[in-house]
Amino acid sequence: MKTKASPVIRPGNLELEHWRQGSFFESRDVSFGAHLGLTNLGIGYGEVPAGKAGCPFHNHHVEEELFIILEGEGTYRFGNERYEVGPGDILGAPAGGPETAHHLINTGSEPLKYLSISTMAATEICEYPDSGKFLAKTRIPGEAKARFRYIGRTESAVDYWDGEPGA
Fold first, then answer.
1. Residues 74, 99, 96, 101, CA torsion sign
2. Which single residue of 20, 68, 126, 162 could bond 26 by disulfide (Cβ 3.0 to 4.6 Å)?
3. Which domains are delineated in the chain?
4. Statement: residue 6 has pLDDT above 90
């Protein structure tokens, strides 16, 4: 059963999910756009501990993202550049190639707290320049879960006709 959306969210009342991957990636975060009744705009809140990043360095081919730093200090890695950021800073991540790849690293001693806002395309391709991976996904508008999701590397590509009957 779907919960009724509310036009107001109190971030302090949201239950954050804590996760950790390896020694560099960790966050406490939550997505809540759907709770506001939004179907094509993603909104999240994140808290990244000191010395950690909340996601791998990546770029989107379709979706755009915006981050608003609420508390803490960090480095915004964007393309080949690095920018020191802090409370009140607004960071853009337009769609594009590796020149728009981005992620936030907490370089302070306190948690880096921020809002993330993104368009939510029905189909998206992300690249991960540090690891050479890509992500292809589709979703049904209004649903958070992807209908199709594949992470791989271009070396695993097959010919268009591979496996087709009679080809």
1. negative
2. 20
3. 15-121 (2.60.120.10)
4. no
